[in-house]
Amino acid sequence: MRTRTRTRSRSRPHLREVLGFAAAGLLAYAADLALFLWLRGPAGLDPLTAKALSFVAGCSVAYAGNALGTYRHTRGGPRRYAVFFGVNVAGALVQLLCILVSHHGLGFTSPRADAVSGAGIGMVFATALRFWGTRTLVFRGEGRVGSWTG
Q1: Dihedral angle at the C-alpha atoms of 15, 23, 92, 121, nearest 10 degrees?
Q2: Which residues, including other chains, have CB under 8 Å from residue 40's CB and lie 6 or more apart?
Q3: Which of the two residues, 4 and 20, has the higher pLDDT score?
Q4: Distance between CA 150 and CA 145 in Å, rounded?
Q5: What's phi and psi for 42, nearest 5 deg?
């Protein structure tokens, strides 16, 4: 009985970290999507420029959410944001790689297949990479209680 209580109390900080990371990510995704749609529509920008600008805005929202929420006990700064941005670029490249493999390597060329490979499968791998990178490279264990390995 005592072991079960100890295990539960140890997992709560990890659950808070995952939920905080997910909340910041959802807000960033919403900001990215809303800005992209506005830039493509009323603002009339081309798709690549619109996506580049919305990606930077989404990264900024995610960084703010993590720095002020999930990892609020850490110090920020331009270097930390640059590493965070790099981790997010790596995540975007993972999504693009999934589309590349699916579309050109496996021959699944429909818009639905591209959506599944990029926004589905790619997003899962990219989110795992972003979570690992954010907690290991950007915020480096500061402000966390315990480790994931016990």
Answers
A1: 60
A2: 47, 50
A3: 20
A4: 11
A5: -60, -35
